[in-house]
Amino acid sequence: MEVVRFTLNGDPVEAGVRAGETLVQTLRERFGLTGTKQGCDLGDCGACTVLFDGEPVLSCLVLAADAEGHSVVTIEGLSNGEELHPVQKAFLDEGAVQCGYCTPGMVLTTTALLDANPDPTEAEIRRALSGNLCRCTGYTKIVRAVRRAAEASRADGRGGE
Amino acid sequence: MAAKLLGERIKRKEDPRLIQGRAHYVDDIKLVGMLHLAFVRSPYGHARLTAINTGAARNAPGVVAVFTGEDLKGRLGFVPCAVEMDGLKIPEHPCLAIGEVRYVGEPVAAVVATGRYLAADAAALVEVDYDMLPAVTSMEQALEKGSPLVHESLGDNLAFVAKIEGGDWKSVEADPSLKVIRQRMINQRLGPMAIETRGVIASYSPGEDTLTVWSSTQIPHLLKTHLAILNKMDESRCRVIAPEVGGAFGSKLNVYGEEGVACFASRQLGKPVKWIEGRRENLAGTIHGRDQIDDVEIYAKPDGTVVGLKCFILADLGAYHQFLTPGIPTLTAMMVLGCYNIKNVFVETKGVFTNKMATDAYRGAGRPEATYIIERAMDLVARELGMDPVDVRMKNFPAPGKDIVLPTGVNYDTANYQKTLKKVLKLSGYSKLRKEQVRLRKKGKLLGIGLSTYVEICAMGPSSRMPAGGWESGTVRVEPTGKVTVLTGASPHGQGEETSFAQIVAGELGIPYDDVTVFHGDTAQVPMGIGTFGSRATAVGGSAIYYAAQRIKKKMARIAAHKLEIKPGEVVFADGKLQSKDGSKSVAFTEIVTEAYYARQLPPGVEPGLSELYVFEPPNFTYPFGAHVAVTEIDAQTGEVSLRNYFAVDDCGRILNPMLVDGQVHGGLAQGIGQALWEELIYDENGQLLTGTLMDYAMPRARQFPWFETANTETRTPVNPLGVKGVGEAGTIGSTPALVNSVVDAMSAFGVRHIDMPLKPEKIWVHLKQGAMPGRDAA
Q1: Which of A63, A83, A94, B349 has its CA at 20 to 30 Å from residue B753's CA atom?
Q2: Domain total of chain B
Q3: Which of A30, A46, A77 finishes a domain?
Q4: Among candidate residues A77, A97, A126, the one where a domain is terminated
């Protein structure tokens, strides 16, 4: 066991982790944050995507110990209390969810994409989402939701200026 | 109110919990003292088990128990198959292999430990001695004399032969004017690939002698019955809960050996036992879909009229039957004439055992294969006769609205195939596309335009035609506070029926949509039902809910009429009130609810309470249909196919919520396109699975698809009160042949008339290299 200290959804946390323990295990087992899903445990499906210093990472491929000193955001940390994050709201409004298993990963990947590129083209959206597998939606409404979120964020940004 | 809610694009009730990571799938559930299960699986396609040494595993850290097939013998039953068929061979299918393994991934031993990874580590320490036996993975080889036998005791590898014959073949075969077109078509093996793998928690309480099982399943009630039988338990003491289910597509319409073992282990150990399937286990040990070789003969008049179709189906069942395995190819036979008025049919279906995982229901389940056969056949006829594929289809459609019974025995409900076809031709700009194709061809560019006009058999189904009951239950319970609880025996898992069923009930009762909550999946809460599959949940389950709501209305109307001193037939439900038709007399919905429970002034003969169960038995299947156009471009250098546009016009009967219907169509399209272009499970001749991870199995990704342009026509079915036909499988069924027809259309310049799926670049490249494209302008 070693102790790892990091920022989780904005709060400083620490946990004792086993050598070889992956971040997804720590989040799910030690912090009870089960919104992060394990779809393959091999880095292929994207269901375990979390934000690591704002970048999307596959938490099944990150050692928990490597989180030391970094910031991790999971799906549970995205909304502000009951107020949905604009990306979550866009997914809801577009009906971009079916079984929901890939959704947390999709939402976080989208959040990172829009932070880096507030006005992505359709091709850029599809490329960004290509590490996240979905078997239900055919991706159509997810791509639409990303566009909608981008528009909403930009409108919000202008409003603040 | 009803009219307003039904047909509206209403946001899903399910989504707030899903987009915030607050939903609970099996793996998100933790119980006190929970143990974890891992399986030792066969690395060989066929081998005799000579010894299993579990000593090292038993001594590994955290290990509580190790079980082998011998330990379970006589104590845990066999994996069930629900299909009954004349002459069907059903081999014994133990939950853990006994004596012999017959496919890669077959469970051989089970290790229970205090942690998931401890169990997995210990499983690696179980020493199994295998004596290799010859495996057979080719169906044709499996049917030859002298082939290795998957089940020695059965004498051969032929599980069943079924025939459908209709019409007057003597005169068809004697008619020299008919063109006979023959084609072999291979429908490759696929992985259903729900993003949530299978998972189960079994929790046995020795004191109460009760077993509670959480399973990622489409059929909690059927699973409960079978787990009780398997475990030789009193069914009353068993409860199954399907929590949030992360996709299924037919793969969780089953009773799996692992579920049986988890229950057994929990009963032995008196503690909860969890098993979560790994992705590699999912590829090897969760049912597969499709896998047929179809030899087709089409008999057509020179004017394009198809008079007869013969089809010889070889269906690869794998090594054992799962729940519906042998039933799937029989659906292919039933639907092989598609939406065409073909008078003569002959189908012979052979189910074949091989050393592979079982095939079973995967989205479409037998019907995508049928549609593929007939839709490719229509294009082959067009090609042979030099006709446009549109004209051949128009020529063979039955007249709109005409009730037809085909020689396959199916009786289509209501249809207008001409209308959907015309609509998709307009939507896609078909005639413009044909002109563009000619223009591009002159420049050496390959554009393909592919058509598919499908009909499917849905809303499974009348019980007389189903292996385990085709009805569905619906309960509407108005709680004393006026909030409404809806219980459905269907067990949706992503389709959105918590939303559409609330729309039905709120509309009928004239109350706010937010006042209605739909529950499903828990056998202790929901009366016996069948489940969600075969595009049945809304058509059959929704109809049960609709009728249960009618019973509630009838009762409430009686109470209200008594109070308002009007006739029950005059009571109207709207805006949270029960009122007379002219609105002059009214009473609040909640007031009548209170009266129903306080029961102080109930009219004579009215029972207190407000809960109604309705079990809906559909009189027939429904037959949704549609027309799709796929536009592909082929890279003349590499053979790579890119899908440029996809147009789909689907008729699923009445649409309750267009947002849900679009979602079902989009997802179905992606799966059907995935089969046409990329997906394939491959076993080698020894029975090794070569596509055992997501690195090898080509699951479609976001960047591989264009926008799907979808539209609908609405032809209501008379089969149920909602007019709903079902839409869960339409996209999968319609899209695969449209894609292949499109690519073959593009490649027709090279004389190509058929290419088997998946249409990988190398297969196309071979044709491209076989010669220059005729008709191309000199550069």
Answers
A1: B349
A2: 3
A3: A77
A4: A77
**A37 in contact with chain B, both atoms CB, cutoff 8 A:** yes
State how far the Cα of B373 lies from the Cα of B390, in Å rounded to an integer. Answer: 17
A78 contacts B11? CB cut-off 8 A: no
Say whether A135 and B245 touch across the interface (CB within 8 A).
Answer: no
Query: Residue A102 belongs to what domain range?
Result: 86-160
Same domain, A64 and A95: no
If pLDDT is split at 50, 70 and 90, which confidence band does B307 have? very high
Q: Does A149 touch chain B (CB under 8 A)?
A: no
pLDDT per residue as tens digits for the range B79-104: 999 999 999 999 999 999 999 999 99
For B694, which residue in chain A has the nearest alpha carbon? A44
Contact B662 A95 (CB under 8 A): yes
User: What are the angstrom distances between the C-alpha of B68 and each of B41, B54, B123, B772?
Assistant: 11, 9, 12, 61
Q: What is the pLDDT of residues B711-728, one digit of tens each?
A: 999 999 999 999 999 999
Residue B8 inside a domain? The answer is yes
Using a CB-CB cut-off of 8 Å, the residues of chain A touching B28 are 28, 34
Q: Are B472 and B530 in contact (CB under 8 A)?
A: yes
Question: Is B694 in contact with A40 (Cβ distance < 8 A)?
Answer: yes
CB–CB contact A88 B21 (8 Å)? no
B732: closest chain A residue by CA: A138
pLDDT digits (tens, 9 = 90+) for B495-542: 999 999 999 999 999 999 999 999 999 999 999 999 999 999 999 999
Q: Which of B17, B195, B679, B727 to mutate to test the interface with A (most CBs of A within 10 A)?
A: B195
- B494 and B370: one domain? no
State the residue range of the domain holding B640: 289-460+620-769
ipTM, 2 dp: 0.97
Instruction: Write out chain B residues lying below 8 Å of A103, CB-based.
Output: 18-19
Per-residue pLDDT tens digits for B136-169? 999 999 999 999 999 999 999 999 999 999 999 9
Hunting for tokens 């509670």 — which residue is that?
A: B212
For residue B659, list chain A residues with Cβ-Cβ distance below 8 A. 95
Burial status of residue A69 (CB atoms within 10 A of its CB: 0-12, 13-18, 19 or more): exposed
On whether both B56 and B91 belong to a single domain, the answer is yes
Q: How many domains does chain A have?
A: 2
The answer to whether the beta carbons of residues A75 and A47 sit under 8 Å apart is no
Are B630 and B742 in contact by the 8 Å Cβ rule? The answer is yes
- Residue ending a domain, among B616, B632, B657, is B616
